[in-house]
Amino acid sequence: MPQEHPITEKTGAWRAVAELYHAYFTGIVLFAVSRLGTAKAEELVYEIFCRQRRERFLPGLKKLGIDQLPPAVAAAQYHYLSNHIGGVSVEFMPETERKAWIRYAAPRWIWADTALCGIPPEVSRAMLLGWHAQNGTMLNNPRLGFVCTKQTVDGQSGLEGYYFEYDRDLAPHERLRFARNEDAPNFDPEKAPKLPTQTWPQERLDKAHRNYAMEYVRSAFPTALALWGPDEASSRLRLAAKMIGMQFYHATSRRLGEDFGTEAAGFGRFLQSIAIAHGDRADLTRLGDAAEVRQQGWAFREGVAEWDQGLDLAWNGLFEGALQAHNHRLSLGFVHQETNGGHELRWSIKK
Question: Where would you tag: which of 6, 105, 231, 269 has the fewest CB atoms within 10 A of its CB?
């Protein structure tokens, strides 16, 4: 009989998923830098952040209730609030209606821990070019640009800069400018914008924190597919996923609050816990020394239109790697089927 495995500590489970996707996204970028070179990694990061900006910026302004603010202030507040929800150390300092600072303080979230040393400045710049420099175009305000004053990847104290509305329209190459001699004012948390608790209760914030990290990988998959083609996207993303799964299995298990042991059924419980933490339904069946997990729904795929079957295997690479850390003597079978417009995923774990 299928056995339910309830997760009693939802926040810990959601954070486990968030940290796994956070690590995976950073791993994808580092993989591109080390295996493909700076130029290819720069292209990948630029296109990922262009995609996120197109899909998230304007709806996010409305969702956060800041779409009626002056453009420079609205853009800076968006990055402050959305990144704050995701657990990023971020600061917001408005000067005027036409000039507002944003600062991603150390330690940087996106290039966590020692990963910072592996990110070329060009890759950090590509993020700014893909998102911050284009906020004015999204707001139909060709006078709005972004001025970067610091980059953590250059050994400076944070990624820092300000939105500024000029007195004239900007040419495309003027939308991002560097001014290393300028310095942001001090951050005052008492003056920073806050989310209303009636529309953003703690449970919604916790889920948003999970989704924030997941969204980076959701954007990376179709972007890699478009840039590299289905075969290369699948193989590269899968290899990066395997390495991240191996490295983060034990940390993820601790977040889930359980010792999963080394048996097949224990890894089945791990998969089931991860699925439930995504918001999907999952059942675990013990089959002697083997186990099967059947998942209904696939939260990761929600909102992702461009897809290839090879990306199924790339995503599952996280769990292939995790199994290697759980017990490298076990094998993992994986099948994905689309049923009545939905998704059914099945894993078999055995010796």
Answer: 6
CA distance 51 to 110: 17
CA distances from 124 to 42, 116, 180, 192 (A): 8, 10, 15, 25
Q: Please tell me the distance from the alpha carbon of residue 130 to that of residue 215, in angstroms, as a whole number.
A: 16
Structure tokens, 230: 């289905």
Instruction: Specify whether the CB–CB gap between 53 and 130 falls below 8 A.
Output: yes
DSSP reduced 3-state for 287: strand
Within a 10 A sphere around the Cβ of 64, how many other Cβ atoms?
Answer: 21
Digit-by-digit pLDDT tens for the chain (351 residues) are 344 444 446 889 999 999 999 999 999 999 999 999 999 999 999 999 999 999 999 999 999 999 999 999 999 999 999 998 998 999 999 999 999 999 999 999 999 999 999 999 999 999 999 999 999 999 999 999 999 999 999 999 999 999 999 999 999 999 999 999 999 999 999 989 988 777 888 888 889 889 999 999 999 999 999 999 999 999 999 999 999 999 999 999 999 998 999 999 999 999 999 999 999 999 999 999 999 999 999 999 998 989 999 999 999 999 999 999 999 999 999 999 998 879 999 999 999
3 in helix, strand or coil?
Answer: strand
HSE-CB of 113 using CA atoms within 13 angstroms:
6
Number of H helices, E strands in the chain: 9, 9
pTM for the full model? Answer: 0.94
How far apart CA 314 and CA 240 sit, in angstroms, is 9
Assigned token pair, 325: 């850390």
